Amino acid sequence: MPECQNCGSHVTDVYVRGFTPDTVEDPRVCPNCEDMTRDRNGVRETRT
Question: Which InterPro entries does the annotation name (predicted)?
């Protein structure tokens, strides 16, 4: 089962297919990572 690399939460296969490159099995961040965000340069902490 795929897991978030940041928090270790379970993510669905559908989420992985939609939000990770084909060569990556585990996403870098997931919807449960409220303090992190994805952008074009990678993963970063959310600005407040």
Answer: DUF7563 (IPR055985)
Placement of tokens 């270790």 in the chain = 8
Measured CA to CA in angstroms, residue 34 lies from 13, 22, 25, 30, 41 at distances of 20, 24, 21, 8, 18
Domain coverage including residue 26: 1-48
Number of domains in the chain: 1
Full-model pTM:
0.67
pLDDT in tens, 8-45: 999 999 988 888 888 888 888 888 887 777 666 666 67
Query: What's the token pair of residue 38?
Result: 């994805």
